[in-house]
Structures are given as C-alpha cells and as structure tokens.
Amino acid sequence: MDRWTLREFEAEARARLEPAHYDYFAGGAGDEVTVRANETAFGRLGLLPRVLRGAAKLQTDVTLLGSRAAMPVLVAPTAFHRLADPEGERATARAAAAAETIMIVSMAATVAVEDVAAAAPGAELWFQLYVQPDLAFTEKLVRRAEAAGCKALVVTVDSPVLGMRERDLRNGFNDLPEHLCCENLRDGARGDRVRPVVMAPELSWEHIDLLREMTALPIALKGVTHPADARLAVDHGASAIMVSNHGGRQLDTVPATIDLLPEIVEAVGGAVPVLLDGGVRRGTDVLKALALGAAAVAVGRPVIWGLAADGERGVTRVLGLLRAEVEHALMLCGCASIHELEPGLVRRPC
Ligand SMILES: Cc1cc2nc3c(=O)[nH]c(=O)nc-3n(C[C@H](O)[C@H](O)[C@H](O)COP(=O)(O)O)c2cc1C
Ligand SMILES: O=C(O)C(=O)c1ccccc1
Fold this sequence. Notes:
This protein is α/β, with parallel strands linked by helices.
C-alpha cells in the first residue's frame, strides 16, 4: 500500500504497535501542551511566496559540522527503535543513508553504535549523548562513537531528570522487554553489564567544558530554548545549537520550537548553525524553520512511524516524502535554493 503523507504513517504505526509502545513514542510530559504546540505553531505561520524568479534548478543540500546532507531534514535521536521493527536502528540508518541525510544515533539505541555504522556503510552518523556523571564511562562512550565513525556529538541538555510521562506511568511502561536493551550502555570487559541511562541534575557548563577537552568532534547542544543559554553554549565552545523541547517530553508548556527559533537565531548572531526539531511534519514546516534562520531541522516521531509501518522501506518513504515536499514548496516559493529562504517569506499569523 502506498502512503502519501506522514499522517498515514502515523495511523499505520498506531494500528501496528502495541498500545503501550505507541503511547511511549507518541506521548509527552504532563498535559502534552508542548507536544501539541510544536505541530500547531507551524500551521499558524503563513508562507508568502515570491513569483517570477526563474527558479528552475533546485538546491537542497547542506553541510553541517562537516557532514553533508542532501536535504535539510535530519533524523533526530530517538530511543528504542527495535520496539518498532526487529532491525531497529540498523533499518533507520540504511534509510538515512539512502536519503543521503544525517542520522543522530541515540545513546539509548537498541543496536550498538558500531553495529548501526556497520549496517549502513554510507551513512553520516552523529552520536547523541547524555553526559553520564561517571566521566570515565562517558569517555568510553565518546571513544566508541568516534571509533564507529560518528562525525559529531549531540549532547542533550534538557533532561536533568526524565519528564513526567503520564501515559507511560498509566501503562506501567518503564523498561524494555527482556530481549532488548540499550546496547550502547553495555559495560565491562565482556560487555555484559548494561547500565541504565543516567539523567543527572548535577550537570553544569563545566561538564561541557570537560567534554570539549575530551574530544575533537564538534559538539551540538540539544535542548536549548532560552536565548541566554544559546549565548552560553557558544561561549562554551558548542559548534551548533539544537532548539528543541524534546518533542514535548520533558518540561510541559515550553513554547513551540518554531516560536522560539527567531530569538535564538538573533542571540547566536550567526556564530554557529542553529538546528530545530519538534513538530516538523510537512515540507512547508521545513521551509518556515529555514526561513526563520534554522540551518536544518530534524524529525523524531515521523521516523518511528515509518519504521513501525514498514521498517527500512517505511523510513525511506517518510524521508522521501519530506524531501519531495521540501522541493515542491521551494519551487512554489520561488526559491532555487534553501539558502534563499529568508524571514520575509513567513507571515504570522496565517
Ligand atoms: C520516542 C522518542 C524517544 C526519544 N529519545 C530521545 C533520546 O534518546 N535522546 C534525545 O536526545 N532525544 C530523544 N527524543 C527527542 C527527539 O530527539 C526530538 O527532540 C523530538 O522527537 C522532536 O520532536 P518530533 O518527534 O515532534 O519530531 C525522543 C523522542 C521520542 C518521540
Ligand atoms: O524517551 C525519551 O525521550 C528519551 O530521551 C529517553 C531517555 C533515556 C532512555 C530512553 C529514552
């Protein structure tokens, strides 16, 4: 069956997944105000196309932190892909490679980062890290990511503790089934002990400084929403900033990321690229984010929907739909290149 929109994938994922697993993927913190806001805020913005600009040949590729992507849509780091498909993160990585885009591998992946890299030789991988208070263990993870060929670290900073996800509490979903685990968190010489993901309220900017010393890889900070933190991130050597509210899964009532973007872009003043995730479901959403100053966006749940609906093929189709929509909307906006997108194309409210 052919599917023509990301929404169809969402419906199919819902029908296929175990309800508690669907809820884990779909849900957010508290009343899920932020989950809804991320999507609806895009709908409130209008696009004002330009005409007669002779834009026939399209350019959609971007280079970010030394990695090339054929389109400005990256795969956001999401945990537990093997809950959606037996191949899990391997399938996602192959689809990202086929789409020639960057996959940010979650530290909480259910396939080890080495195995993800081996499964998709052409893939551009970045590694998402929750800095563990055990810095020796953090360093081991960083070395593994480097050795596996990851080109950047994406450090998630919006999770001093896990968000209060009431769907999961109600469903009693608090651990993976017996046959799955967070493969990047195996410990010990034989790699047999699996540590839990530690979220640590004691983390501070000093830890970012330590990490900066630990590796030559570029570091992106994910989960920045306050303009003052965006400036601090640059001061502490971040190579990119990812405006993210964790898809509404951490602090509820954080505003939609697309509404936060302009202030962050202004605060950063072009010093480093600004990325955005949260609620991107259409090519027009991508264009709005780029017009307002994002260098690229990332998608979280849509990738899971593709994976749950049809494994690698499903993710390939989700990424392909987004690419086709980006190209089509660009053309209709009178832009030959994503680099021509500018704030004047966005009108608020719709
Ligand atoms: C099921 C799920 C698992 C996630 N796991 C992680 C994770 O392990 N690390 C992380 O930094 N962000 C994680 N996120 C947040 C995503 O990286 C991203 O910020 C969010 O999904 C973007 O919103 P979207 O789902 O509306 O595209 C997760 C999100 C979801 C939905
Ligand atoms: O579910 C999440 O959003 C997430 O970030 C996470 C964190 C630790 C383990 C698994 C998932």
